[in-house]
């Protein structure tokens, strides 16, 4: 009986609790293993050295086949005979087996995969390519795709890196999944097990480089102990074919080396960098190179000495050149003290202004790494015009897997559709097809180096990114870096099969949720290209549109009482539209030809401006926010429909996040709508904004031990006001008579969950407890915390199916804790099915 249950369990793909650590490499049993009659009987890995990716490939094949089919295959490194899966480099294959016709078709890192009845050949142009082929074969098997095939797969571009913004103290800038897997207390960790597991994940999506530390770099990474640590990490990455890189601080020669200068044209500085570089290579012979953020956001750089950015980049290039290393030099250079009162100022112009005239002046082992849009990882941006301005310079695109402005992994936002829009955008350089994806490869400008980098920021959380569903973004990044022609929906379907198994409903539902998630997030955050509208001065998480304007950061919306948007036209604005090639410039210059979704990026218009849809800008804002927040509610019901079809741990953890997102989407909706209603004075035609018939405002309840509190920003509280306990030692009660008709309601309570306290709450009807909770989201969610009542800390809890009678007494008791004064915003009594 036990056996039967186990078999049934496995057949359904319902493994025991899963913590997410295996990500898409679970190798779960397939439902129809007999569909693959021709499973080879041995594994031949044509390299027996343990640090070799081909050796790793052999191990991985063994592990995968055991998991998927329950069969233990032996591995040897010399085997002949037809019934084997052979993995190796083209060179080793030829040595052992003679001819290999496809060798010439393989580019660097490319592989050949041939699956025949009883023979499988996985042949890489190099070692890691063979490992990529092994992962590809396993991915097919794990998805129960048993077709016989034979094909070559080559990468779109040579650079497929990830950037981790880890600090030496173990914290991670813009990381939402716990502390670093690389550093602790100022040094590289002794234990590199998890770092190796990460390299394995990356190899499976064909990422070939990791920059392990923050672009805001600490020069202490270059001390002896840390260089030894780099050696340990590189040793851990090497079996996976992943090369190590580091971010550098430009001022290191002075701050760390004790030189009087860090001028890139000073010969002593050159020598200093050459020595440091040599030292690194003597410990890490396959070191990938440096990533450099210079003269940006307060970081030092060559401009300090009136040298050009190219002078700065080339200094590192010279040091790396003899070793074959490369410099990823970031184009994210701008002045963050711009004067907002000058209509012509524009941060979006900075990259082209700094880099255009340097085209052709960079050494050939320099790659300029360009964020996908001209500002900073916003929910919608046009591609950076710099992609079209650099023709004689190697370029790479910088994407962000960590959801810095997009919900910190506590909101589901599947990013592949957004990345695809950028990669497929045709910049029409010289009136010729010039898609971004072809500019970052050699296709358009014939530059040999190029590709992609993604800021990932994994942490020690078992899920890697702090959320199971967010891992689809890391997966999609690798797939698109290898092949930008891949479709976002195909990628997510593969990822779901690998992550959750074969249930058709799971596949369709998670696909639907994922594909709707970016549009939904855009709808309930910043629309029409106005930017994300998150708080740019604090956590980059919750809503705070006012934070964009009137400061030097240059992420302006220029919203006033009648109009909104950045005028980036040439005729009347900052001229940014003119930085694009003529056909694109013309499109963005004119309101009529600018797509609605970028209208406010390029134009300053009245709130009453009509969109192509016929709606006004302001009504579009209102409608989009209602629509986006409504979509977020459906993610909960969609996910709930999968109960029993996914292991319990992941089901529960995702459900918790979706419920949280649904609540926070309402915070976004109301906050942004209130803000713009307040600013424009134009009412919502549908009369929803500011009109909430099901709400009981906490400040209107009768309070004991609680007092009203004016929340800042005002629009992050319903009615601008919440309640807090009168002291952090006072228990507060808020009571109200229920005036609604007797019936069954969903009782939703909006409260604020601050870091620095875990208040407890109880909600009672006629002194009967109907719900209780603790304000402990800081332990359960990964987003950057807040110590204030604001749009980051605002949250909702719902108790469903509560019976109330007209005239009953509703009471909330709040027990403050630490600095958290049990804050409450409002209570909603919602007839089932109502959202508000
Ligand atoms: C953003 C981000 C910073 C980061 C910077 C960068 O501004 O908020 O944390 O350092 O980008 O990419 O360099």
UniProtKB/TrEMBL annotation:
Q: Which organism is it from?
A: Lojkania enalia
**A Gene Ontology BP annotation from the UniProt entry:** xylan catabolic process
**How would you classify this enzyme at the top EC level?**
hydrolase
**Annotated function:** Alpha-glucuronidase involved in the hydrolysis of xylan, a major structural heterogeneous polysaccharide found in plant biomass representing the second most abundant polysaccharide in the biosphere, after cellulose. Releases 4-O-methylglucuronic acid from xylan.
Entry annotated with the keyword Signal: yes
* Reactions the enzyme catalyzes: an alpha-D-glucuronoside + H2O = D-glucuronate + an alcohol
- Give the Enzyme Commission number: 3.2.1.139
Q: Which UniProt keywords apply?
A: Carbohydrate metabolism, Glycosidase, Hydrolase, Polysaccharide degradation, Secreted, Signal, Xylan degradation
Q: Which Gene3D superfamilies match?
A: Alpha-glucuronidase, C-terminal domain, Chitobiase/beta-hexosaminidase domain 2-like, Glycosidases
* Location of the active site: 297 (proton donor), 376 (proton acceptor), 404 (proton acceptor)
Q: Which positions carry the signal peptide feature in this UniProt record?
A: 1-17
Q: Could you tell me the superkingdom of the organism this chain comes from?
A: Eukaryota
- Cellular compartment(s): Secreted
Would you tell me the Gene Ontology cellular component terms? extracellular region
Matching SUPFAM superfamilies = (Trans)glycosidases, beta-N-acetylhexosaminidase-like domain
One Pfam entry for this protein is Glyco_hydro_67C
User: Can you provide one Gene Ontology molecular function annotated for this UniProt record?
Assistant: alpha-glucuronidase activity
Q: What is this protein called?
A: Alpha-glucuronidase
* InterPro entries (alphabetical): A-glucoronidase_C_sf (IPR037054), GH (IPR017853), Glyco_hydro_67_aGlcAse (IPR011395), Glyco_hydro_67_aGlcAse_N (IPR005154), Glyco_hydro_67_C (IPR011099), Glyco_hydro_67_cat (IPR011100), Hex-like_dom2 (IPR029018)
Residue ranges occupied by any Alpha glucuronidase N-terminal domain in the UniProt entry: 23-137
Entries under CDD domains matching the protein: CBM6-CBM35-CBM36_like
So what family is this one in?
A: Belongs to the glycosyl hydrolase 67 family.
Domain Glycosyl hydrolase family 67 catalytic, by residue range, is 145-464
Glycosyl hydrolase family 67 C-terminal domain residues: 466-688
